[in-house]
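Sequence in, structure out.
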Amino acid sequence: MLTQIKGLHHVTSMASDARQNNAFFTGLLGLRRVKKTVNFDAPDVYHLYYGDEVGSAGTVMTYFPFPHIAKGHRGTGEVSETAFAVPEGSLDFWRGRLEHAGVEGIAADERFGETRLRFLGPDGDSFALVEVADDPRAPFAGGPVPTEQGIHGFRGVTMLLRDTGATAGLLKLMGYEELDRNGGLTRLALKGGNGADIVDLEARPDAPRAREGAGSVHHVAFAVEDRAAQLQVRKALLTAGAHVTPVIDRDYFWAIYFRTPDGVLFEVATHEPGFARDEDPAHLGEALKLPDQHAHLRTRLEQSLPAIAN
């Protein structure tokens, strides 16, 4: 069993409108936009990052907003829900805030003894707020949500699968342990992680396969401290039979990618070098930052990409 993985690093999804996406995460949920850059493979599309004050691993939700993208269809073989941790007693505040904003799909539930509030994002993305006691991670203090009710970071993700056995085995190799089961749900957790420690696997053998589009999670990333730890994880995954990419420089972290047996795209990303590598921490996410290979496109991109309020 690996010990290098520290929990989630980030979750990356797809959206249909950059301005709407930015307003939802910064204006409604109160996260900080910590980076405004572009998709490495499609530079005409933003890559937007939202998180805590500095974009700590385990707090960062990222988006590719593709204009005119078709809406995704929920199904198996995907991350079906992303859950954020909020302080105990804050869900009444959040229900009122979400209802006032006209957010759809608001519903309270309980899972493995945790009190939750589910809701949908602008593109039908599935989210939950989970009350967590004594989470030491500090919410972003510079946004519109009071820190007493603010989002600490991720609690975890849910994956919808036809069969959970193979993915559960992979996660156990990655250091997760099974905590509980309830019907078709299996909860795995990483002890001593970064707070974004939970992966729930939901078995739906008769459900259709997911079709990726706006509102779909593109990939989920797991955190390691540095490149040395990442290489150890890569070696173990290759030995276990996973098809793992070479290490890729993503400017703000180093990444490797592989798919689970059920088709979910996993990434393992480093803490280093972080989002302040090319921007003053006081001004994270304000200027358009471009990868070196796309720097020559700056004039065109600044004209073609939609303006986003800071």
